[in-house]
Amino acid sequence: MARTVDPVTREIVKNALAAAADEMAIALYRTAYSTIVRDCLDYSTSLCNGSGEMIAQGVTIPLHLGSVPFAMETLLAKYGDSMEEDDVFILNDPFEGGMHIPDIFIIKPIYWEGARIAFSVATAHHLDLGGRLPGSSACDNTEIFQEGLRIPWLKLYRRGEPDESLFAMLRVNVRVPEMTLGDVRAQVAACHTGERAVHELVRRYGPETFRACAADLIDYTERLVRAEIARWPDGTHTFTDYMDSDGMGGPPVKLHVAVTVQGDSLTADFTGTAAQAPGAINNTFSFTFSVAALSVRAALRQDLPNTAGIFRPITVVAPAGTVLNVVMPGASSMRGITGFRLADLMFGALAQFVPHRIQAAGEGGNSLVVIGGLRPDRSSYVYYELMTGTWGGRPDRDGNDGLCNPANVASNIPVEEAESNYPVRIERYGLVRDSGGPGKFRGGMGVEREWRLLDGHAHLAIRSDRRDHLPYGLSGGRPGRGSTNVLRRESGEEETLITMISTSMEAGERLYHRQAAGGGWGDPLERDPEAVARDVRNDKVSLRSARTDYGVVLDPETFAVDHDATVRARRELAGARSR
Question: Averaged over 17-34, what is the pLDDT?
C-alpha cells in the first residue's frame, strides 16, 4: 500500500528538490570552462526518482524539459540493474535518447544503503565535439556522421574511477579539448552536488518518505495540469508556419500542428509537417516532445513543480522521417532553430484555446553565429555566440526588448569576454528602432550585433530565421520586422547572406546580424497614445511610425501627444483599413 505524505512534508521536499536542482545549475555554471556554458547558459540540470521519472528541474533551459525522460528510458534499457554506486554515465547520440551531437548528458545514479533512490542529470551544449566544421554545428550538414563524435550510453566513471580511455578518446576528437573536457567535469560536479542534496533529504526524512514524496509530487503535478486543461474548451485547432530554409539554402519548410483538447488531456499532432530536411535542422522526437510540453506548460496559469507529471496528460504525434522526427542518418546539429519555431507553432494553436494567455511570436529563436579558426600558435579556437533576442507582445503588456526567447534561458556573450578571448571585435550591439510589431501591446525590438574578425581566416556558420516568414502578431497585432545577415568586406562591398549558411570570413571583414523582432498583440490603433509617446522619447519608435502605424500625432520637439489630431488620424487609418 502506498504511503501517504502529508501536504506540509510534500511542500518542504518539493522546494528542497527544486533548490537542489538550482544548486546543481550554479555548480555547473561556476565550474564550466566554455563561453557557451558559462556565458550563454546553454545547459540544464534535473533530478529523477529511482525509476528515472523527473522530480525537479533547475531554472535553466526549458527546451530540455521533456528530453530527460527519453534519455532515462534508454539508459535504463541498456544498463538496468547493472548500474553500481558511484557510476557516472555519458551520452550524446541523438538516436539513443540524446537531442543532438553537441548536447552531452551526464547522469549519476544516487544510492542510499545500497539501493538506488534517485538520479542526478546534467545536460550541456559543448563548444566542439569534432566533426566536419568548428563547433560541430552547421546547417548544411547532410548526415549525422559529419557532425562529430557520437557517444552511446557509456560509463564515464565506474565505481567512482574515471574511464581514462574514454577521456583520451574525447580529447583527441575535439578541437578545444580543454574546454570540452572541462565542461564535462563541470557536469560531473553538478551531479555530485545533486547527490549530496538528495542524501541530505534522505538523512532527514528517511528513504521511504523520500520515495513517497517523489511519487506524490509527480501525481500532484499531473492533477494540477489535468485540472487546468479540463477548463479549456474541448476541440481541435490547427496552425501552420514556415521556416525560411531547409538548412541547405533550399525551399521553406512547412510546420503544421493540430492541437486537440479532450477533457483533461491534450494531443499535439504534427502530421502534415514537411519531410525530413536535407540539412541539419531536424528534430529528434524527444526534442519535439520536449518543446510541445514546454509550450503547454507556458500556457498554464498554475504554479506547479517541474516533474514528470507534466507529461502524462500530453500526447505528441510526429511521424518518423519528418523534420520533427529524424531517422538515420539524418543530421540534427542545428535542430535548435526548429525547436524555437515549433514553440511558435504550438503557441499559435494554443492562442485559439486561451487567447488571453498567449503572446505573439518572438524573434523565432536564438541566432547562432560560430566563428572558428586557428590562432597564430596554430591552436584552435571556436567562438560560439548564442544571440538572444526578444518577445512578442503579450495580452496585457509589451514584449520584452532584448530578453531571451521564452522557450530558452540564455544570454549573449559579454562584449569584454568576446574581445578578451577571441580574435573578434564587437563593432555594434543594440536594439533596432521601429522593429517591434505594432499592436495595442508592441512587440519587442530586434537585436543587432556586428563582429569584425581581427586575424587570419575563419570558418563562419550562421543559424538564423524569420527573414521571409515574419514573427506573427495576434488579435490584430502586426508582424515584427524580419532578420538579415550582411557580410561587409574591407573593400566596402556588402553581401547579403541567406539565413542559414556555412561560409568563411577573412581578417578585417565584418558580419552584421539583425534578429527578427516580436509581433504585436492587439490593434495598434488601440494603443495608449502616451505609451507611443514614451516609445518615441526612448527611441524605440520613430515619429513617422507613431503616425503611420499607431495613428498618434506628436509634437516633433516635445513629443507631447496632440489628442485632437490623434483622434482624426486614427479615424482616417481605421477608414482606410476598412476600404
Answer: 96
Contact 258, 238 (CB under 8 A): yes
Residue 260 near residue 266 (C-beta atoms within 8 A): yes
The domain of 44 spans: 7-223
Residue 451: HSE in the Cβ half-sphere, 13 Å Cα cutoff: 28
Beta partners for 521?
441, 474
Query: Which helix H or strand E contains 353, and what residues bound it?
Result: none
Report the chain's C-alpha Rg in angstroms: 24
Same domain as 538, residue 517 = no
Domain boundary residue among 168, 192, 223? 223
The count of structural domains within the chain is 3
- Residue 76's nearest CA partner among 109, 32, 45, 36 is 109
Residues 522 and 394 in one domain: yes
In a domain, 291, yes or no: no
- Same domain for 515 and 552: no
Dihedral sign from CA coordinates of 127, 276, 388, 19: negative
Residue 41 covered by a domain:
yes
Which whole-number Å values give the CA distances from 403 to 406, 429, 518, 550, in the listed order?
8, 14, 11, 24
Question: Based on the domain organization, do 511 and 571 belong to the same domain?
Answer: no
Which pLDDT belongs to residue 164? 97
Q: Is position 308 within any domain?
A: no
Give residue 522's identity as a one-letter amino acid code. G
For the stretch 104-135, pLDDT in tens is 999 999 999 999 999 999 999 999 999 999 99
Task: Report the distance separating Cα 570 and Cα 548, nearest Å.
Answer: 9
SS3 string, 194-257, reads HHHHHHHHHHHHCHHHHHHHHHHHHHHHHHHHHHHHCCCCCEEEEEEEEECCCCCCCCCEEEEE
Query: Is residue 404 assigned to a domain?
Result: yes
Backbone angles phi, psi at 317, to 5 degrees: -115, 120
| Residues written for the chain | 579
Same domain, yes or no: 23 and 168: yes
- Of 513, 499, 511, 488, give the one whose Cα is nearest residue 463: 499
Q: Which of 184, 208, 223 is the last residue of a domain?
A: 223
pLDDT at residue 1 tops 60:
no
Alpha carbon 430 to its chain centroid, in Å, reads 21
For residue 50, give the amino acid letter: G
Angle at 485 between CA 381 and CA 144, to 5 degrees: 55
pLDDT tens across 427-443, in order? 999 999 999 999 999 99
Q: Is the pLDDT of residue 2 over 60?
A: no
Could you tell me if 507 and 540 lie in one domain?
A: no
Cell of residue 159, nine digits? 565505481
Show Cβ contacts of residue 312 under 8 Å, excluding neighbours closer than 6 positions.
222, 225, 226
Model confidence pTM above 0.85: yes
Q: For position 134, what pLDDT does the model report? A: 93
pLDDT digits (tens, 9 = 90+) for 35-92: 999 999 999 999 999 999 999 999 888 888 789 999 999 999 999 989 999 999 999 9
* 20 and 133, same domain (yes or no): yes
H/E stretch holding 336 reads helix 336-350
Helix (H, G, I), strand (E, B) or coil at 24: helix
Single-letter code of the amino acid located at 70: F
Same domain, 493 and 532: no
